[in-house]
Design brief:
elongated, about 25% strand, two-stranded antiparallel ribbon, about 35% helix, 7-stranded mixed β-sheet, alpha+beta
């Protein structure tokens, strides 16, 4: 009977030692590792000492309850890729042919801004969408030419990119001029 009692005390002691070692080395480090990981992953949370109670309190950096928000808007990725110009209201749809073509990225980067300026100057300031006509897309050794439908207008916009001159040219085409090449209005942009 005495050896049975000693065996239970021994088993209890071993269990207490194993639990103590686990709590000392593993459970304590896990919470420290978690806190360190949170600090390293962008300071998602921070600890702030409260003056009245002297206790540590966890707060979330992204919880804006009770905080004054900034008055100035943050710059978005689109604005930073557009050299800070935020006034571009025009966009192209159906651009698969253009994307697969040989127009340099520098020309594509200024295309929206230049087209918008040209359309405003030509009296089409309210155009916001240009739909590229796939059938009109032509590319040869000298130039790329394509026609875009303008939302709300029968007239169309013809865009040309000349490789040797590195120049973009724009023409407004009446519906009966389509295919004949526009000559009534011209805008051009030369890459530097």
């Amino acid at each position: 009977m005495r050896s049975g009692k000693q065996l239970i005390v021994l088993a209890f002691s071993v269990a207490a030692i194993v639990l103590g070692v686990y709590m000392t080395f593993f459970a304590g480090n896990t919470s420290q590792d978690h806190d360190a990981g949170v600090e390293e992953s962008g300071n998602m949370e921070q600890e702030i000492s409260t003056e009245g109670s002297g206790q540590m309190e966890r707060t979330d950096d992204y919880d804006y309850a009770g905080k004054q928000l900034p008055i100035v808007e943050n710059e978005t990725a689109v604005e930073s890729y557009n050299n800070g110009k935020t006034e571009i209201d025009i966009y192209f749809s159906n651009t698969e042919r253009l994307d697969q073509g040989k127009m340099p990225m520098a020309a594509q980067a200024v295309l929206c801004e230049d087209v918008q300026k040209y359309l405003k100057h030509s009296g089409y300031a309210d155009v916001t969408e240009l739909y590229i006509n796939d059938e009109s897309y032509q590319e040869d050794a000298e130039k790329i030419t394509f026609v875009c439908f303008m939302d709300g207008y029968e007239e169309m916009l013809q865009i040309e990119y000349w490789f040797e001159e590195q120049t973009l040219k724009y023409f407004i085409l009446n519906s009966d001029e389509y295919g004949a090449g526009g000559t009534d209005a011209e805008g051009a942009h030369t890459e530097e």
